[in-house]
Design brief:
With 153 residues, this protein is mainly α. It has a single domain, classed as AhpD-like. α3 packs parallel to α6, α3 crosses α8 and α7 crosses α8. The chain is 69% helix and 0% strand.
Length: 153
Amino acid sequence: MTTRLNYFDNAPKGMEILMQQEDYLRGQFLESDSVNLAMWELVKLRISQINQCAFCIDMHSKDALKAGETAQRIIGLSAWKDMPWYTQNERMALSWAEQLSAGQPISDALYRKAHEAFGEPSLVDLTIAINAINSWNRIAKAFTSKVGSYTPS
């Protein structure tokens, strides 16, 4: 396998923008009543599963466990629609995330449910977060980040 470039070394300003976005989202979700950090980790992990980003699955599984998530909920995430362990808001966030990540139109019904569940600022922040993890997945896959190299801080 060809050794891939280090994207942080080769585009430090671009990576700093993405890291600032993560800091912004972390701050928003710390203060939000409708989208919290645990839900954010579930969304990041689920989208990473869909995108088959091994590095990000490893990372977000570790982060979710560190944040107090259970192994049962992490293992069940790929079949969340059929599992009883997720709240209504988590289900709404996962549904919103899957629809956006698939590039599918958002129906008026889904939009109304998401708007009702999260409110205006949090729905925008959740949408930015979904865009962010899709971006990170693509970067990690393009430059083959080493699976297992991530250690939560």
